[in-house]
Amino acid sequence: MTILHDHDHPHDTRGSAMTYLTEERSVDTVLGRNDPTADTRLLEVMSSLVEHLHQFAKDVALTPREWEEAISFLTRSGQLCSEERQEFILLSDVLGLSMLVDALNHRRPSGATESTVLGPFYVEGAPNREMAEDICLDGKGDSCLFRGRVLDLTGRPIEGACLDVWSDNAEGYYDVQQPHVQPKWNNRGRFSTGDDGTYAFRGIKPTSYPVPDDGPVGQLLRRLGRHPYRPAHMHFMLSAPGFQKLVTHTFVAGDPYLASDAVFGVKPSLIAHYEKADGGEGTHQWLCEFDFVLVPADQGGQDSAPPTSD
Ligand code: BEZ
Ligand code: FE
Question: Ligand 2: distance of its center to the CA of 113 in Å?
Answer without folding.
Answer: 18
